[in-house]
Amino acid sequence: MTLPLNLSIAMSSLATHRVRAILAMLGVFLGALAFTGVQHVSKIMVKKAVLETEKLGPNFFAVMAGQIRFRRSGSVSVRTSKANFRLGDARAVIDGVPSVLAGTPYANTSFLVKGDGNAVTAPVFGTWPTWPEVRSLKVGIGRYFTWKEERERAMVCAVGVTVAERLFGSPQKALGKTVLIYRAPYKIIGIMEPKGRDLVGDNQDEFMFMPLSTFLRRASNQNFVSGVFLRLAKEADLGLVEDAARSIMRKRHKLRPGDPDDFSLLAARDTIKLQRQALDLMSTLGLITSVVSFAVGGMGILSIMILVVRSRRVEIGIRRAVGGKRGDIIRQFLFESGLMAGFGGFFGVLATVALVVILSKTLDLPLIIDPANLALTLVGACLLGLAAGAYPAWQAAHIEILDVLKSDG
Description:
Layout: H1 3-16, H2 18-56, E1 60-64, E2 66-70, E3 76-80, H3 87-96, E4 100-115, E5 118-127, H4 131-135, E6 139-142, H5 147-151, E7 156-159, H6 161-168, H7 171-174, E8 178-181, E9 184-192, E10 208-211, H8 212-219, E11 227-232, H9 238-252, E12 264-267, H10 268-311, H11 313-321, H12 326-363, H13 371-397, H14 401-408
Parallel strand pairs: 5-10, 7-9
Antiparallel strand pairs: 1-11, 1-12, 2-3, 4-5, 4-11, 6-9, 7-10, 8-9
Helix pairs in contact: 1-12, 2-10, 2-12, 2-13, 3-9, 10-12, 10-13, 11-14, 12-13
């Protein structure tokens, strides 16, 4: 039999038993959707974690005055502790930790910032001039403050694009203007390039930056910092870095053996590792779900094909009587079962692509479509259909002509 004739007969059979065929396809559809969907979502979330980590800066490492907790999604929450992290602690970490290329202590809090008749509550950071280098940030318009301005406690600042737009309408209009914090004027000397959200979930485009000395003495009047950020060399041994930082901090804070740390260590690579672990669990659950769905779909196709063989006994007998070979009968029914599963797999793959595109557009996630994964799923669905149709096809090929004529009579 020719391929067009096989296709015509198969499509006619599916159309005749369309309800049963759709129910059988549904299991394969759900299996394909579960398998490809979970795999794609996992890859997208890992990619997102990598992109968010890159926002922190290359080979980022932090020692923070607070308790860090990792959510199941891999994101980070920080709960501040008592104000016992001094500027001297930050300098000791920068000088004493191996493989440090650059570092900056920082302090931050939220202030009501006013400008041009508008007001916005913004997280304000006091930093050293090395902040852009450590955090992989760039100034889009203007400049960042200098070491001279840090020493002089200059009343200058750089702001995120969102702050500039909310206060002055556009970044270009904001440059050179003055903003007020508690009636104290700060001149805007730079507008940062857009950066988006970090691992904590804060929008970095809503931040405002000023010299650390200015922040500590003029803006907040405090003698402690929030922590220190480091940029490490690519070949840095993270274990040695963590040991050195912990040793320095425990010694400076006079912690005895057995006392818990009153600070936290954070490496960007840790966040990716934790998020991968959470996604691995999700992938495993998705794989189990897809296997169950595929199994249900296979059983559905098997059941329907057995019913189809029984309902077409006369047709099969006539085809055998006019010279049809058993091999032709087997190929015909295998073609039908494979086509049924193929349709289910195809629509499952198509639904995955649509889902990935929608999630990417609505949730601002990276768009990842893996053709190899989709093709593998589609081939697997077709093979499942062939396996499910093997026994019914064998039954059909071994129907005896005389038995059919006797039962029909």
